[in-house]
Amino acid sequence: MEIDRRKFLEQGYLVLREVIAREQLEQLRRDFEVLVGKQRRIWAQERGPDDPPGGVWETQPQPRLGSYHQLIDEGTASTVEVWLQESTLGVSRQLFSAPETVGMAGMMLMCSPVRDHGPARWHRDVHPIDMAPLSGLQKDLVENGPKYLQWNIPLYDDDVLWVVPGSHRRVNTETEDRELLADPRKPLTGGIPVELKAGDGVVYVNYILHWGSNYSPKIRRTIHGGHTIFPYYPDMSFSEHLPAEARALFRQWDKRSAALQDWTEAALRAVLKSDVAAYDKALEALQPGVGEAGKMVLSIYLCKATLHMQVVKHHDAKTNGASDPLAGITEDYRSRALRPHSISINWGPQFADRFTVEEAAALHSRFATLDRKLQAKEEHFAPSFQSSPMRYFFNEMPADFGLGEFIASWN
User: Is 110 helix (H, G, I), strand (E, B) or coil?
Assistant: First the structure.
């Protein structure tokens, strides 16, 4: 499938027709419905004492199968294979700067609720807690292409998603901020619906301004997820249900993931040793051909990783009543640190086992200047972000503090 990469980078999204061939559609609907049935039974079993019988299925505005690959068997393997087609994986490979690095980031299914919940909030999928400020991500995108791409592929006609074309390349306008502060659940100036027929798809930059315009009981089964240069699957057992060619792809990505984790460790150890050449080599291995803007984003991700590591190392301090050296860290930060987010090279709590408590503390010290530069003196908030008010900057990168200044701060 031929695509226009230039148009994608300008608009931040591309609509593609018949990503799923018509002859595939009915079988894929049936296979996904099997997974929905499995997940609904799990939700019913996990419901709280005050929840309705269906649990999440009856309470959420957008019930989502968050990791449906864990539910598959040989009879439903098609739900994974759809991500490996030329019309999906092949398209993403054309949009990344280094096609050979592209793997799976996540496989989900968005479903319609049992009652009308109306519109969601306009937002960008950017979290200052574990990602870089928006302007840094945008500069990196222009210089190096995407690190992650997001997809929606509906099994039934779907016009829920709206986007503001081009907003992935800039911060909010004054008009957008004013409208978002007044009511983030209304149409936004410049926003347009992404009208998809069953089997069509939209691939987009995840920090474009976008909106779930109406979560109604109208049937919705929309495949959601993405491709990334940082693939990560802690449990690969699901791949045994896949045909040989698909299984080989996931095994290849698993090997790449292991190598990326090794290079992440190598980058951090280079910082401990103040070895600039080794640090640069590790960044190049994490993202081949990366430029300075991309290296700065990777450095911020590594900065976040050191704080995550501190959270993991001292996770028991709070529960055991001991003195907690990270007492000022919010619960949101703690929860994010304790779960993987490979898009920002957070490989999960077990990655912290590669470093001693003393090494983790030394790394935290080496990255302390950068961490301070990423924060304001007071908590603040920027419209369209999913986070609550915090000190970390939402939009702006540190002033007069680039890669060279960061490396100089090690000593």
Answer: strand
